[in-house]
């Protein structure tokens, strides 16, 4: 039976899974999901899995038929590979839900070339990842296998999918570029977008340095076309370069709120926009300095500045000017052309667009840079708004060569599963293995097709370890999302993740005698990064959370002091270590709630291509945990922002924070709605964005709206960067 043409009339698992959505005696039929899982293994997996006499025969077949990287296998004694498999089998792994098994076999398991048979199961995929990231180190490979088979660690989708395969794509999740204000740079950026979209995930591109529409070029008035035509070129590039049909190319374009083309930029997402300017698949993001919020608060006019003039006056690209600091000087400078609008008009336009399309993302740029411990300036982000790393602009010559090599960004992502991570016997050893696996991706990524990205990766060794399953942990431990105990746990968990990723990176730097580029200019080197950890104890405060962390080594002020001394002496290998990416299909395989967000529904409904609807119960859902699960659409978003802000305190990069809104807001949810319409308005989003800003949230990802006719708007799941 061909896996691609399953006869649904001859299987029972879809019907059994669908019964999840049919209450019986006023209760959810959770047992039907387990029945569907058993039926899927029995009816689909077992009869369609290629069998081998022994492990050696299996590996011989995989190598001979070009499925597995022979060089990777040859780095190990085969006796060790057998021992690794023996260990994994003893762990007795089983999927916990039908969705988990279905997603794994549909998206991740290697199949024969004709798609007639599966060649691997979950244990095999874990083994391939462990051997690949272990890179010949038997101890590390065994440790990584332990982390993954117990689902404490989950590599990002491209990493987990491609590890160990001979015919593989890239392991990197996404990239960040910027263009400067000249045709050579624009051309190189479009070429880079094509190349990166072909090999990997999504591409973030900042266009703030480009002069506005109507600006002069070489003395000719009204000659410049502005950013919108470049956006159209980029959208066409991503559509064309679609990773050989496996996945649609994806990109996001960022623009400063002080760029003169800002209104035209936002208009490209309007449903009624002219086809000449409308972008359908390109995502939009804004970089927002503190000054914008100041002008909103004062209900003042705001000035938009010509990037070309600013660069002529200041001698560096628009992206690198501190707009909050220089705003008044730029307003007064007659050499800089400026355009006047009302700050609140722009604020309302942003909210209108978020209501209509979910865009734009918001990057609170001054908040980001105030917390950035690495020398340099963060000017942009990636497709999912969680990667926040410094960049240096490149100078491109007439032959598309680099006159001055800058530094751009590649993103290497992975995630901890909070519930399972809290079961580890050794938090430090677990995190150390994860940091080494992620660093391997950075060390072995071949990115010479875009030299500025290769340069940034080689200099920074940046990684992004995150988390998923936080809401599931709360429910399992009888905490309400966003309450005192939940915030206490969030604080300690991410403080520990920060501490142990620092310790691991410091250990690698000591072993290799190598630090990231310009470490000596960082807040790590002078010790100032550690000030807040030396000023107070960041351990658990509430009795329940103290009990939860009782078996773990929670860092004390003394521990932080010792770590600071070691970091100042030996440095860090990774310039960036943590980021909270959105979690897509991989969270189902882990039976984890997505990222740090609350759930959408207790029984989630997924529309699968060619299959129909599949239902997924929230992890750990039972009569016992039911009261602790509340839909994000029925929750005060300030509680979500509070959870993210608590985690953000310890995360050196950002988080893909999504706001969930109903088009008709439940009564009593927000006090400012009392006596007003229950319909969601721009004012509601304005208030929530301002709240997020004051809580020092670095970025806001999508705004998702659940409409009165039970449709979700602003939903565009990022498969490129998602864990």
Q: Would you write up a description of this structure?
A:
The protein is of the alpha/beta class. The chain has a domain at 174-409: Anaerobic Ribonucleotide-triphosphate Reductase Large Chain, CATH 3.20.70. Helices cover 41% and strands 11% of the residues. It has 28 helices and 19 strands. The strands form 6 sheets. The protein has a 7-stranded mixed β-sheet. Strands 1-12-13 form a 3-stranded mixed β-sheet. A 3-stranded mixed β-sheet has the order 16-18-19, covered by helices on one side. A hairpin with a 5-residue loop joins strand 9 (395-396) and strand 10. The longest helix has 29 residues, at 484-512. Keywords: Allosteric enzyme, ATP-binding, Deoxyribonucleotide synthesis, Disulfide bond, Nucleotide-binding, Oxidoreductase. This is Ribonucleoside-diphosphate reductase. It catalyses: a 2'-deoxyribonucleoside 5'-diphosphate + [thioredoxin]-disulfide + H2O = a ribonucleoside 5'-diphosphate + [thioredoxin]-dithiol. Belongs to the ribonucleoside diphosphate reductase large chain family. One of its GO terms (biological process) is deoxyribonucleotide biosynthetic process.
């Amino acid at each position: 039976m061909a896996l691609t043409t399953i006869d649904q009339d001859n299987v029972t698992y879809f019907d059994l899974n669908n019964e999840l959505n049919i209450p019986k005696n006023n209760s959810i039929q959770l047992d039907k999901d387990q029945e569907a899982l058993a039926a899927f293994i029995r009816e689909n997996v077992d009869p369609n899995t290629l069998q081998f006499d022994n492990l050696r025969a299996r590996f011989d077949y995989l190598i001979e038929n070009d499925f597995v990287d022979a060089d990777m296998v040859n780095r190990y004694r085969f006796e060790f590979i057998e021992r690794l498999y023996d260990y994994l089998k003893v762990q007795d792994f089983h999927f916990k839900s039908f969705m988990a098994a279905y997603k794994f076999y549909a998206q991740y398991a290697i199949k024969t070339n004709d798609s007639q048979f599966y060649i691997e199961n979950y244990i095999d995929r874990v083994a391939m990842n462990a051997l690949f990231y272990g890179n010949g180190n038997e101890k590390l490979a065994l440790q990584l296998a332990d982390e993954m088979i117990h689902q404490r660690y989950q590599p990002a989708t491209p990493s987990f999918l491609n590890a160990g395969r001979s015919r593989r794509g890239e392991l990197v999740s996404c990239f960040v570029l910027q263009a400067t204000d000249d045709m050579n740079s624009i051309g190189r950026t479009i070429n880079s977008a094509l190349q990166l979209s072909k090999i990997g995930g999504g591409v973030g591109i900042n266009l703030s340095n480009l002069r506005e529409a109507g600006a002069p070029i070489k003395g000719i008035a009204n000659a410049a076309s502005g950013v919108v035509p470049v956006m159209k070129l980029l959208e066409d590039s991503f559509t064309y370069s679609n990773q050989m049909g496996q996945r649609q190319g994806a990109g996001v374009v960022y623009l400063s709120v002080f760029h003169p083309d800002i209104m035209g930029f936002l208009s490209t997402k309007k449903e009624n926009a002219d086809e000449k300017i409308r972008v359908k698949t390109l995502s939009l993001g804004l970089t927002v300095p503190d000054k914008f919020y100041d002008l909103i608060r004062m209900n003042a006019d705001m000035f938009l500045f010509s990037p070309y003039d600013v660069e002529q006056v200041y001698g560096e690209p628009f992206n690198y000017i501190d707009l909050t600091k220089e705003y008044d000087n730029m307003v007064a400078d007659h050499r800089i052309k400026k355009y006047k609008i009302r700050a609140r008009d722009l604020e309302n336009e942003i909210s209108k667009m978020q209501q209509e399309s979910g865009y734009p993302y918001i990057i609170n740029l001054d908040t980001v840079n105030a917390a950035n411990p690495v020398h340099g300036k963060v000017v942009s982000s990636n497709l999912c708004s969680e990667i926040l790393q410094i960049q240096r602009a490149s100078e491109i010559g007439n032959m598309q060569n680099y006159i001055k090599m800058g530094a751009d960004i590649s993103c290497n992502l992975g995630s901890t599963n909070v519930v399972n991570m809290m079961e580890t016997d050794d938090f430090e050893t677990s995190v150390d293995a994860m940091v080494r696996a992620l660093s391997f991706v950075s060390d072995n990524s071949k990115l010479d097709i875009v030299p500025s990205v290769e340069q940034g990766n080689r200099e920074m060794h940046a990684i992004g370890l995150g988390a998923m399953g936080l809401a599931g942990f709360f429910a399992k431990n009888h905490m309400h999302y966003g309450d005192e105990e939940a915030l206490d746990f969030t604080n300690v968990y991410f403080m520990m993740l920060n501490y142990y990723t620092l310790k691991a990176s410091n250990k690698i730097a000591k072993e290799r005698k190598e630090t990231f580029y310009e470490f000596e200019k960082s807040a790590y080197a002078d010790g100032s990064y550690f000030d807040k950890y030396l000023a107070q104890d960041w351990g658990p405060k509430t009795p329940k959370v103290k009990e939860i962390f009782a078996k773990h080594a929670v860092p004390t002020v003394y521990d932080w002091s010792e770590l600071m001394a070691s970091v100042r002496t030996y440095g860090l290998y990774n310039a960036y270590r943590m980021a909270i990416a959105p979690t897509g299909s991989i969270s189902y395989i882990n039976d984890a709630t997505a990222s740090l967000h609350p759930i959408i529904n207790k029984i989630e409904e997924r529309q699968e291509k060619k299959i129909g609807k599949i239902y997924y119960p929230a992890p750990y859902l039972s009569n016992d945990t039911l009261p602790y699960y509340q839909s994000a659409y029925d929750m005060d978003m300030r509680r979500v922002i509070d959870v993210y802000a608590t985690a953000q305190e310890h995360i050196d990069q950002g988080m893909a924070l999504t706001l969930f809104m109903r088009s008709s807001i439940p009564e009593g949810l927000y006090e400012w709605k009392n006596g007003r319409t229950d319909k969601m308005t721009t004012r509601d989003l304005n208030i929530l964005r301002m709240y997020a800003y004051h809580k020092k949230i670095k970025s806001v990802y999508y705004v998702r709206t659940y409409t009165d006719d039970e449709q979700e708007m602003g939903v565009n799941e990022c498969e490129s960067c998602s864990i």
